[in-house]
Amino acid sequence: MTREDLPDLLLAVLVLIVMAFAVSRTAADPDLWGHVRFGRDILASYSLSRHDLYSFTSDRPWVNHEWLAEALMAGAHRAAGSLGLIALKVMLAVGTFAVLWGALRRAGVYRPLGTGLLLIAVVGVYPQLIAIRPQLFSVLLYAVLLALLNGIDRGHARLWLFMPALFALWANLHGGWIVGLGLVGLWSACELTTRTHAWRWTACGVLLALLGTLATPYGVELWQFVWETTGIDRADIIDWQPLIRTPSHLIPWAFSMSLAVMAWRRRGAGAIPRLIPAVALGVLALRVVRLEGFFALSSVMLLAPCYAALGPKRLPLTRLPSRAEVVTVSLVCAAAVVATGVAVKHSVGCVTLADPSLTPPWAPEAEAITFLQSNPIHGRLLCWFDYGEMAIWHLAPKLLVSYDGRRETVYSAAVQADHLRFYSSRRDAGYARRLKADYVWLPQWLPVNDALEHDGWVAIFKGPQSTIYARKAGPYTQPAPRTGPRCFPGP
Prior knowledge:
Blueprint: H1 6-24, H2 32-45, H3 67-106, H4 111-129, H5 135-153, H6 163-173, H7 177-194, H8 199-212, H9 220-229, H10 250-267, H11 272-287, H12 292-302, H13 323-345, H14 366-374, E1 379-383, H15 385-395, E2 399-401, H16 413-424, H17 430-434, E3 439-443, H18 448-454, E4 458-462, E5 466-470
Parallel strand pairs: 1-2, 1-3
Antiparallel strand pairs: 3-5, 4-5
């Protein structure tokens, strides 16, 4: 390292610290137990089950569109437990940012500005990086897709040939491929209007991408599944809410939109073919917060050519630093990296459960799970859908659940609607009787709890967050209070 490289060293350390904190915390979401359990089943049988064995109300063939992601998650967990899941998440996150950085450099973006753009992308994608879930695969593959489109835009039309393999892999990992396919279609339409590429290559590439999505165990049935489920109302899932309901997400959204404005000011009408797809995603992200990470990547990578040769090639120095100053700054940077490692050390090895201070928390108290495990409880469990896959992990096959986070993949719209009506009912708990449920396990804040007690159900366990009901009282053993951090798989 020469003395002229000192600003680059400071930038590299800054990026390293921000990325370390961005990827260090790994949290469980309500579906993690199911993902790993179903992945274990796939690895054990080397096949995909079309019939659900874990729920007594599932009424449609199981289209497990995330089967490959679940198998990889189960393999990582089997190899190294929670540390394996964390390592998988870190590899996907680092891979995403490596693809992003490479795209910026190939677009001719100078390093100082590229570092800033990378940090904006990290902030925008951060909400998708917290939990270990199949969506992480979509984040990485979306970055790869943007890099391919940039290469095609530079005249490398043969990159279209990679599209079928990309979308075949994506369609087996996560449903986010539909966002990627929509981007390809919109980007291609915009590019064809400028006649910058041969229309035959573009049309062939789009067709190949579409056909790639057929390379799944479900074939055309996957298209039918996406068509039927994409528009399903998900009012009870935070990721599918408008951005305005999570005000903290408006800050990274504003950063990303400011990049679109900068691209417009710099290139004018020449930026339109790239701006339209990016801004369209930004508008959609206002409606569905889950799309914000895709918007952040698009505003940086898709618009990267608009930032080329902008700003200085390197951070300017008013004078060359002395050797003593170089040594001092290097030691400070090394100390900062070590301090960062110490700060994030406690996050490694534990996939944390939801913070109980959240209102309302999705994760039930550990004592509820211990209660269900330690007592002779079996049969049918009518449960809150966030509890379903945790119950499957800890209690199957002695207990079958009524509803879980797979939602439309195994439950018809009627079953989903019946559960949502039951949860919100203040007077009628008859649905529990009609299902012939043996037990009911719900968060305490649901209105239906009062209706259950009025209907004769007995609370056999009551914790600070959830209540378990039975048809009649019995000699149940109550668990001792549990203390300390909670890590996946718990209880």
